[in-house]
């Protein structure tokens, strides 16, 4: 861990810089862009019934949107207030009233006709609900009845037959910690969370490459670094406040590089609402965009290293930081030999980039004295996601871009609750402050908690869902699933399979603030719905950890409360005492303050969390830079340079690689059918111009995208995307993604595959001649060959 402390927010330049303007026309009139003023007015109107409370949430609470860590309207990176439409859109979840009883207790078929967006707009869940097999309506239950129903079922189960899951919906460190503790007290290691589905390869790869599991640097390091690289990350869309940091970086002369199959308009230019100059005239963000093939990143990075080693052969020291490599890494010779045997034809075909383009970025990075690499799910959600991230670490280690100012490796988090989830032990591989397969960590936690931990390996959530369909006699047949937030129908691959799995469980528990489509599915015995508080309602407040390891305190905020809703951690504690009353004394966790005091003991890096009590309280664990001065927390203090093999991309000739993208949404909660950056609707399929011509497609023409897993009906939208690749929106395109395909090191689901694209009229004209079946068989045969 580092010794240097974060130095706090810095000021933006006072004078404007017209060189960065997108247009001299005020507010980007006539351009395709978000309408921030209109959007803000719309959100204010939505919250008009609770406007004073909404204002208090915005000015006193820690943002429950993205993981940049905005406390009130301020953060630790830039002076001045911040606000974004992502946070504003999520705001209504906290201020809306309870669902009206006549709607809440309507016939289940009527409710099932509503989309998740429409269900969300009904309001908050006000009290516990139960719907048993054969019942067509939810009925009101007392807390005693609801929790006793769950506890009775749990007591009769093998602990391997139950599982917990926590989403990232504003969940605090306190709730993650208590859930992790309760799951183990009840004898199960089947606990997982949304963060692991998104960024587990980041943690796994960083651990093996440099010995840490979080961002090694800060957002401040973006500002003034020579090169800022966004790899498979659309920060402008998913973390809009980050555009303010990009603006500050541009004003310092930083070059911003974007690597993505699709030329994302929001990363090229943005109108930043909290900077007057940018709000008026826009800001040019990206200096260059490298449109790599879906899955071609490892080849691209091998190409960059190949250029570096070729440069070194002509002029030693021109590309590799030899002093850093010699003092702080292992494996340089193995990596050099591995890269040397890579041939340029394969690298260019796999990456989709020419040798000249690869050389451009290689030389830019070789000339740079500093760089920060930022990435997200464009790198992680592959079956080779861990290898993708280790390649990024290779680049940083070879150039010494680690452990100092304006340098680092940053897996940018999407939601405010996700960084702390694994650090609190809420996944099948983790314990608070450690790993479940570490004997030392297990012993430490057992001594603190006062009970023996289950020794068997818990399942990741995808396998948990598959276990619901195991035969009755199977030991891991999933019978009870307890999910805090989340909607697997709209987040996991193969929705039809997920639907079947969710309805095959005996008891399903939905601890949430709103209804969604998965809540309405049947169960073999009962569906129990438990109303949760938001982070702003929880007694004693709560904490969350940002991407840059800042642990923020968010206080309880005075305002209206929803019916019988309870703090998430309090529900877990109550349930555990009912299942194991004899272990109640061992559980503790009576108050939020007591939980934080215990976290400080369980997770040593979180020592300091126990002192967070007031609005604005914050500390950063690990110092400003992890691996400071190149010293890694590995057994020998060195980073590992790892030879990474090219993945088999499995895209047959004439077919397309497909990946999913986000639009105007927060996780699976969709706020607009139209993407404000490119005017695409949710069923538009982004296709390149050359591919449109080869398929004889017209703009807006009906098409079908299909493979052996499913089909999606959509419309062709000509876009600037690498030829041979297409993008569809998530979750609308999840029917194309195979279930049961997991990254081998971190267990993340694969969200990319190969597909056929055809005109809808062709697809339907041949549907009775087994044409489609033959085409799918052809695809599968070619992929196996």
Automatic annotation (TrEMBL):
Keywords: Iron, Iron-sulfur, Metal-binding. Pfam families: Molybdopterin, Molydop_binding. Residues 124-577 form the Molybdopterin oxidoreductase domain. Coiled coil: none annotated. It comes from the Bacteria. Residues 658-754 form the Molybdopterin dinucleotide-binding domain. This is Molybdopterin-dependent oxidoreductase alpha subunit.
């Amino acid at each position: 861990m580092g010794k240097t402390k974060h130095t706090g927010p810095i000021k933006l330049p006072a004078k404007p810089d017209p060189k960065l303007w997108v247009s001299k026309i005020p507010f980007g009139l006539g351009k395709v862009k978000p309408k921030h003023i209109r959007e803000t007015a719309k959100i204010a109107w939505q919250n008009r019934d609770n406007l004073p409370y909404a204002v208090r949430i915005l000015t006193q609470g820690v943002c429950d949107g993205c993981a940049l860590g905005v406390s009130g309207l301020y953060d630790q990176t830039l002076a001045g207030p911040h606000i974004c439409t992502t946070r504003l859109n999520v705001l209504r979840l906290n201020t809306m009233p309870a669902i009206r009883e006549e709607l809440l207790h309507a016939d289940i078929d009527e409710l099932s006709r509503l989309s998740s967006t429409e269900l969300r707009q009904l309001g908050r869940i006000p009290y516990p609900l139960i719907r048993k097999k054969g019942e067509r309506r939810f009925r009101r239950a007392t807390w005693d009845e609801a929790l006793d129903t769950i506890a009775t079922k749990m007591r009769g189960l093998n602990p391997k037959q139950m599982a917990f899951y926590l989403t990232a919906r504003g969940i605090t460190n306190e709730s993650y910690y208590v859930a992790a503790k309760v799951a183990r007290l009840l004898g199960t290691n089947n606990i997982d969370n949304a963060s692991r589905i998104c960024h587990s390869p980041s943690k796994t790869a960083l651990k093996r490459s440099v010995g840490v599991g979080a961002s090694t640097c800060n957002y401040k390091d973006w500002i003034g670094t020579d090169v800022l690289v966004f790899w498979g990350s659309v920060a402008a869309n998913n973390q809009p406040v980050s555009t303010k940091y990009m603006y500050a970086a541009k004003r310092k002369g930083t070059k911003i590089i974007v690597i993505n199959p699709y030329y994302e308009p929001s990363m090229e230019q943005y109108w930043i609402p909290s900077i007057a100059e940018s709000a008026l005239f826009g800001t040019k963000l990206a200096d260059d965009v490298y449109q790599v093939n879906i899955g071609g990143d490892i080849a691209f990075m091998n190409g960059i290293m190949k250029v570096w080693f070729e440069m070194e052969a002509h002029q030693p020291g021109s590309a590799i930081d030899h002093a850093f490599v010699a003092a702080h890494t292992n494996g340089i010779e193995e990596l050099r030999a591995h890269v040397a045997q890579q041939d340029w034809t394969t690298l260019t075909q796999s990456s989709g980039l020419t040798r000249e383009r690869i050389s451009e970025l290689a030389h830019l990075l070789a000339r740079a004295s500093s760089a920060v690499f930022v990435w997200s799910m464009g790198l992680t959600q592959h079956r080779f996601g861990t290898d993708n991230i280790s390649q990024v670490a290779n680049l940083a280690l070879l150039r010494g871009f680690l452990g100092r100012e304006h340098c680092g490796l940053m897996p940018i988090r999407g939601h405010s609750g996700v960084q702390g989830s694994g650090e609190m032990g809420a996944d099948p591989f983790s314990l608070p402050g450690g790993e479940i397969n570490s004997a030392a960590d297990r012993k430490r936690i057992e001594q603190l908690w006062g009970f023996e931990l289950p020794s068997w390996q818990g399942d990741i959530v995808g396998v948990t869902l598959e276990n619901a369909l195991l035969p009755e006699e199977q030991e891991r047949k999933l019978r009870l699933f307890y999910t805090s937030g989340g909607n697997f129908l709209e987040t996991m691959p193969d929705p039809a399979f997920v639907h079947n799995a969710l309805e095959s469980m005996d008891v399903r528990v939905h601890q949430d603030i709103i209804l969604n489509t998965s809540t309405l599915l049947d169960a073999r015995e009962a569906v129990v719905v438990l109303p949760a508080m938001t982070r702003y309602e929880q007694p004693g407040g709560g904490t969350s950890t940002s991407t840059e390891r800042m642990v923020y305190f968010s206080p309880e905020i005075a305002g209206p409360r929803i019916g019988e809703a309870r703090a998430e951690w309090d529900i877990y504690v109550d349930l555990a005492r009912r299942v194991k009353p004899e272990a109640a004394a061992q559980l503790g966790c009576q108050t939020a303050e007591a939980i934080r005091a215990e976290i400080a003991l369980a997770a040593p890096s979180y020592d300091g969390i126990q002192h967070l009590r007031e609005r604005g309280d914050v500390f950063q664990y690990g110092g400003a830079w992890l691996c400071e001065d190149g010293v890694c927390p590995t057994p020998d203090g060195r980073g590992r340079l790892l030879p990474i093999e090219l993945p088999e991309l499995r895209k047959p000739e004439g077919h397309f690689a497909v990946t999913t993208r986000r639009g105007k949404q927060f996780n699976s909660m969709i706020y607009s059918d139209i993407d404000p950056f490119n005017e695409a609707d949710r069923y538009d399929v982004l296709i390149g111009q050359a591919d449109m011509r080869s398929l004889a497609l017209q703009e807006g023409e009906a098409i079908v995208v299909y493979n052996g897993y499913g089909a999606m009906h959509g419309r062709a939208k000509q876009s600037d995307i690498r030829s041979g690749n297409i993008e569809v929106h998530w979750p609308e395109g999840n029917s194309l993604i195979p279930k049961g395909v997991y990254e081998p090191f971190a267990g993340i689901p694969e969200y990319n595959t190969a597909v056929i694209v055809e005109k809808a009229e062709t697809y339907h004209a041949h549907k009775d001649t087994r044409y489609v079946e033959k085409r799918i068989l052809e695809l599968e045969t070619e992929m196996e060959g």
